[in-house]
Design a protein that fits this description.
By secondary structure, this protein is α/β, with parallel strands linked by helices. Helix content is 49%, strand content 13%. α2 crosses α4, α2 runs parallel beside α12 and α6 packs parallel to α7.
């Protein structure tokens, strides 16, 4: 059983959604990333998405675009990102780490080389924003061969047939993009997200995570009531930007927001009745 599957199983027993936190590796500098990952876990993050900085992040809004630019100013490469995951694993062998980025750096490295090195670094999943399952070719199988879950995106306008295709190709969980647009673009509609998650669940047994538009404890709680995972990105990256190079204050600010979100996540079913 993978670390992602193990974590979701534990969370089901707790009757709680996962809190998945995204940061861009190397932002605001490479030395901060691993301490920040540990701080996220200490504050209540159940999984970590580690963004690979990219020069043309088409699915990301200005907040994460600027994060990529700050990291690229330090020449952070895909191999360095995997090195950060490897360093994180020396202290934490349980928290799932998911690499999220774009196809070009992976193609430069090679699909099978990336899959092998990601697995060796302790990476559990990969989200490649511009690689739909229909075009994944040998990439998806290469990841699975090395025990790395290929995780694909489902959009609000995805058809039922496409959801089934994505579900069949993916592992770990499905990532539902709650907004039409880029990250951090608008405020989400919790009711429409609930309806979409319900529809997706009729086509898959995989957990459904929801990202884009979750900015605070209130929105995290609303999504945590209906989805299997709450994915928070721009809100955290915005804090990184606002705190600049003051590492201690940065970690304190991030930990405070993650702690608020974790505390706000509702418990469901039998566990809720026992509280």
């Amino acid at each position: 059983m993978s670390r992602i599957e193990t974590r979701f199983q534990a969370l089901r027993e707790e009757h709680r959604a996962a809190l998945v936190t995204f940061i861009t590796a190397g932002d605001p500098n490479p030395q901060v990333t691993v301490p920040l990952m540990h701080a996220l876990v200490a504050a209540g993050a159940d999984m970590i998405e580690l963004g690979v900085p990219f020069s043309d992040p088409m699915a990301d809004g200005p907040v994460i675009q600027r994060a990529s630019q700050r990291a690229l100013a330090h020449h952070v490469s895909l191999r360095q990102v995997l090195g950060m995951a490897r360093e994180f694993r020396t202290r934490d062998t349980e928290t799932p780490v998911i690499v999220m980025g774009y196809l070009n750096p992976i193609e430069v490295l090679g699909y099978r080389v990336f899959a092998r090195e990601a697995a060796a670094a302790g990476v559990d999943g990969a989200i490649t924003v511009d690689m739909p399952p229909e075009e994944a070719g040998e990439f998806g199988p290469a990841l699975k061969d090395h025990g790395v879950d290929p995780i694909y995106l489902v959009a609000p306008n995805s058809s039922d047939a496409r959801i089934r295709t994505i579900s069949a190709a993916g592992c770990g969980f499905l990532y539902y993009v709650s907004l039409k647009g880029v990250t951090g673009a608008a405020k989400l509609d919790a009711r429409s997200v609930a309806e979409a998650v319900q529809r997706i669940r009729t086509h898959t047994d995989l957990p459904v995570g929801v990202g884009f538009g979750i900015t605070d404890a209130e929105s995290a709680a609303a999504i945590g009531a209906v989805a299997d995972a709450v994915i928070v990105g721009s809100a955290l990256v915005r804090l990184v930007e606002s705190q600049g190079e003051d590492t201690q204050r940065l970690i304190q600010s991030i930990a405070a927001l993650v702690g608020e979100m974790r505390k706000a996540l509702p418990r469901r079913g039998a566990a809720a009745g026992n509280e």
